[in-house]
């Protein structure tokens, strides 16, 4: 008997808010070796309840859903049921989807163009303690590790947080809100919140004052020469 034949089927719950997509994934998984589908949920709240009831090995988790999205559901599942792993299966591969999901505890991340074999590999990879990531997601993680990060001082002025100081340094470097969001892997709305907070703390009224403030506090230095 081969190792594949000896391996117990992975017990899986599928979570997706679109009925047609959810039923299609369940049907696909039912045809794949090494997978046993225990149930399916239409949103994060239902997913958390199903995990508590069925104790699956793995949840295949969509991200953008009503009531409770996939990131919050992943966070709750990993906190309340650490024996259940989460593999994200989503349409989206942007940074604002990827990194919050991994930070919430997902061990795998696939896009919905993944084939059946890739899904099976990801499911069994996370059960073996490895990451179940598609090649494109692995490349994005490596790219992020190679990206320069703005340096924050050991003690930020005027009670600024480390993230607010990072945003201030990037403003001084001439980056737009959208560019700052991409650099820090957060939404533009989050960048605006950080800017409002740091402006209030530092008594800054506009971006020109922010640049002068950053130079005056030694957070950035003029170019040499």
Automatic annotation (TrEMBL):
Location of the Response regulatory domain: 11-127
SUPFAM superfamilies: C-terminal effector domain of the bipartite response regulators (SSF46894), CheY-like (SSF52172)
Keywords assigned by UniProt, alphabetized: DNA-binding, Phosphoprotein, Transcription, Transcription regulation
InterPro entries xref list: CheY-like_superfamily, NreC/VraR/RcsB-like_REC, Sig_transdc_resp-reg_C-effctor, Sig_transdc_resp-reg_receiver, Tscrpt_reg_LuxR_C, WalR-like
Alphabetical GO biological process terms: phosphorelay signal transduction system; regulation of DNA-templated transcription
Residues carrying 4-aspartylphosphate: 62
Single GO term (MF): DNA binding
HTH luxR-type domain segment(s): 153-218
Keyword hit for Transcription: yes
The protein's name: DNA-binding NarL/FixJ family response regulator
Organism per entry: Streptomyces violarus
């Amino acid at each position: 008997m081969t190792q594949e034949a000896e391996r117990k089927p992975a017990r899986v719950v599928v979570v997706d808010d679109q009925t047609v997509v959810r039923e299609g994934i369940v049907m696909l998984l039912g045809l794949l070796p090494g997978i046993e589908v225990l149930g399916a949920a239409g949103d994060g709240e239902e997913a958390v309840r199903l995990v508590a009831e069925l104790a699956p090995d793995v949840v295949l988790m969509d991200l953008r859903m009503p009531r409770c999205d996939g990131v919050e559901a992943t966070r709750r599942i990993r906190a309340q049921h650490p024996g259940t792993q989460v593999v994200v299966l989503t349409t989206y591969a942007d940074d604002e989807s990827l990194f919050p999901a991994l930070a919430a505890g997902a061990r795998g991340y696939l896009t919905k163009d993944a084939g059946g074999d890739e899904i099976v590999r990801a499911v069994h990879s996370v059960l073996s303690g490895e990451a179940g990531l598609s090649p494109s997601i692995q490349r994005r993680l490596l790219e992020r590790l190679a990206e320069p990060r703005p340096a924050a001082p050991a003690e930020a002025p005027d009670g600024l947080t480390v993230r607010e100081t990072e945003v201030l340094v990037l403003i001084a470097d001439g980056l737009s809100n959208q560019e700052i969001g991409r650099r820090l892997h957060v939404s533009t709305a989050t960048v605006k919140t950080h800017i409002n907070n740091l402006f209030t703390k530092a008594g800054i009224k506009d971006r020109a004052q922010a640049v002068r403030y950053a130079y005056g506090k030694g957070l950035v230095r003029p170019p040499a020469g």
